[in-house]
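User: I'm new to structure prediction. If I give you an amino acid sequence, what do you actually give back? Let's try with this one:
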Amino acid sequence: MVHYSDFRLDSRIQRQARALAARGDEVHLACLGEDDRVDVGGGTIHVHGLRGARRGTGVARYVHGYSSFLAAAGRCVAALDRLDVVEIHNMPDALVAAALLSRRRGTPVILNVHDTFPELFACRFGPRAARLAFLEERLSAACADAVITVTDAARDTLAARGVGVGRTTVVMNAPDEGVFGPPAAPVRLPAEGPIRVLYHGGGAERFGVPTLIRAFGLLGERVPRARLRVLASGDGRDALAALARDVAPGRVDVAAGPVPFAQIPAELRAAHVGVVPTLSNAFTDLLLPVKLMEYVHAGLPVVCSRLPGVQRHFAADELRYADPGSPTALATAIAELCAAPADAVQRAERATARQRELGWAVQQERYLGLVDDLAARARGRGRRRGAGARAARGPVGRPVGHPADLT
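Assistant: Good question. You get back a string of structure tokens that encode the predicted 3D arrangement of the chain. For your 407 residues, that looks like this:
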């Protein structure tokens, strides 16, 4: 796997890597962060930290960061050799270039589209930059044997512009029960003491964290027991903390640094309400946020921005919706949820029942089936070409007689 993120912080990467390793596969990650080795089940996850690559802001720094990471990732993948499958996780889609040498050797390549790149670029840098991103997306997908998207909406959006048609699989961001445990019973709001409200996820403007903090400033005496904990990734935590001190002193706690994914289950267990304050635009309207899925899995009543991608899966009696981008609407939604604890429990029950249809057991089977199908087809091509060594290998990631046969 190649991904421009830190394995310790990226829940989607962790879910997929652990699913492979748990059945005995050997997984290699070319990513940001530090070198590491994690034993899971009968397999192993090797983390190859590319410490020279760092994120930035602005188009030039984006391009520089992505380019330097792509060069390092390409060297890492080429050095591994004899892989069964290479999976590229965007953003950007162009990271697929790190697998071109492997693909020439006959190794199938997956492009895993966490987020639709053109929509994000349009929101950040305007339509001119988006036109380049459309071209980048099309060329990158053409270099992959299969495409994965996170939602049906994202798959349909790609298909409408001719990307991944007939070779796209939807693998949703459902929580891994191996990490979070089974779905929790609905959380009841406490009759006394603080009502703990949680946000965990991206700190960028589009995720609406400033809107949420301002909403707490408006809550005032409507919900005097409400306290907000913000676990924001990326830059900008100091600015969020300053905003909290200004508009909601003593009511909002902004974590000083990134919180590793391994600590998120404990944070969820300590909370009473989860909030998804995402703003609405062409990019976010396609999202079904992973934090939402984790809140529902933890049994938390959820207040969520009214976004098309979310409404496609959850009804109005399952989540408490609020107009995106409005601190007033968000404050009202939180206040009304806290004022009706019995209704909050019922919403959490219905949301949990809905999410069972989307659970990780289903998503994992779909994902592993795609990986195995691609590997099997590659081995079939190898037999027809006389590549007996590859054809003689066992299931994905279970080497037969060659220590360098790795997934």
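You can read the tokens as a compact description of the fold. Here is one thing that stands out. The chain has 16 helices and 14 strands.
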